[in-house]
């Protein structure tokens, strides 16, 4: 496959396979929300599999377990982030602090501290009900912003399109309804906010965990090129359907 033939396609494979075919610094911006390792829980001071105790609102996948030991979860996401920063100057990584991700996430922040430009808080507007006594309701998620260009400073020196004092580091964005067959959809308004402020028309956007295809859908609406990776065959079909619907609508108004 020629490199340009990868554009505007969802690749049904591990993102590490897709990333391996990218040239250095060939992507303008990476936007993604990876699996949170939701099928882990704490029991007697240890993280274990939820097994059959998995709540109904936790997504289940046939291609992977979303149930990795902390060391494996950290290793995998470290590989993904390393590759994303090889191919792009700027990476937006949306992830929640849950039992299965917490230890690995904090270690990852430390491991990539020299590339961590800033942290944006996604305020969902209301706290998700706690799963048990003594647990705080979860109202926010992190959007970790990694960058190669002068990351020691909080200043974005290039490819930014917001004026001084106009963009906060807390984004109040309501959760969106689940796409059919997907339990946790990244809100389109989040992707739109990133694209409006950190990209321009014609830029190439990559989502290594495409899921239901929100990044691709918003890119189509905002005239950005895009590439996605998704390991779930079910979600690939769902994402392609959503993109097709947007293209049909765009063609209708042309």
Keywords:
254 residues; 8-stranded mixed β-sheet; Rossmann fold; single chain; alpha/beta; globular
CATH architecture, by name, is 3-Layer(aba) Sandwich
Trace the largest sheet across and list its strands.
Answer: 1-10-9-2-5-7-6-8
User: Would you give the CATH topology?
Assistant: Rossmann fold
Instruction: Please write the CATH class name.
Output: Alpha Beta
Q: Would you tell me the overall average pLDDT? A: 89
H/E topology pattern: EHEEEHEHEEEHEHEH
Give the CA-CA distance, first to last residue: 30 Å
Describe the protein.
The protein has 254 residues and is α/β, with parallel strands linked by helices. The chain has a single domain (3-253), classed as Rossmann fold, CATH 3.40.50. Helix content is 29%, strand content 22%. It contains 6 helices and 10 strands; from the N terminus they run E-H-E-E-E-H-E-H-E-E-E-H-E-H-E-H. The strands form 2 sheets. The chain has an 8-stranded mixed sheet, with helices on both faces. A two-stranded antiparallel sheet has the order 3-4. Strand 3 (40-43) and strand 4 (46-49) form a beta hairpin. The protein is globular, with a radius of gyration of 18 Å. It starts with 8 loop residues before the first strand and ends with a helix. 35% of the residues are buried.
């Amino acid at each position: 496959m020629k490199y340009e033939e990868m554009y505007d396609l969802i690749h049904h494979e591990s993102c590490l396979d897709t990333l391996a075919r990218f040239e250095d610094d060939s992507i303008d911006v990476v936007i993604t929300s990876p699996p949170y390792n939701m099928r882990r829980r704490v029991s007697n001071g240890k993280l274990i599999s939820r097994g059959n105790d998995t709540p109904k609102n936790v997504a289940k996948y046939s291609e992977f377990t979303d149930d990795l030991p902390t060391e494996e979860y950290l290793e995998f996401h470290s590989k993904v982030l390393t590759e994303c920063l090889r191919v792009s100057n700027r990476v937006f990584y949306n992830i929640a602090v849950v039992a299965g991700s917490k230890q690995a996430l904090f270690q990852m922040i430390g491991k990539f501290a020299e590339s961590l430009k800033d942290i944006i808080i996604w305020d969902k507007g209301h706290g998700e009900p706690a799963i048990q006594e003594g647990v705080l309701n979860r109202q926010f998620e992190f959007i970790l912003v990694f960058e190669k260009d002068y990351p020691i400073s909080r200043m974005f020196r290039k490819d930014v399109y917001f004026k001084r004092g106009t963009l906060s580091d807390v984004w109040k964005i309501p959760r969106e309804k689940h796409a059919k067959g997907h339990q946790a959809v990244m809100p389109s308004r989040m992707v739109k906010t990133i694209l409006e402020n950190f990209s321009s028309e014609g830029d190439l956007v990559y989502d290594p965990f495409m899921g239901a295809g929100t990044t691709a859908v918003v890119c189509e609406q905002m005239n950005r090129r895009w590439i996605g990776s998704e390991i779930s065959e079910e979600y690939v079909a769902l994402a392609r359907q959503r993109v097709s619907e947007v293209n049909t609508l765009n063609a209708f108004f042309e």
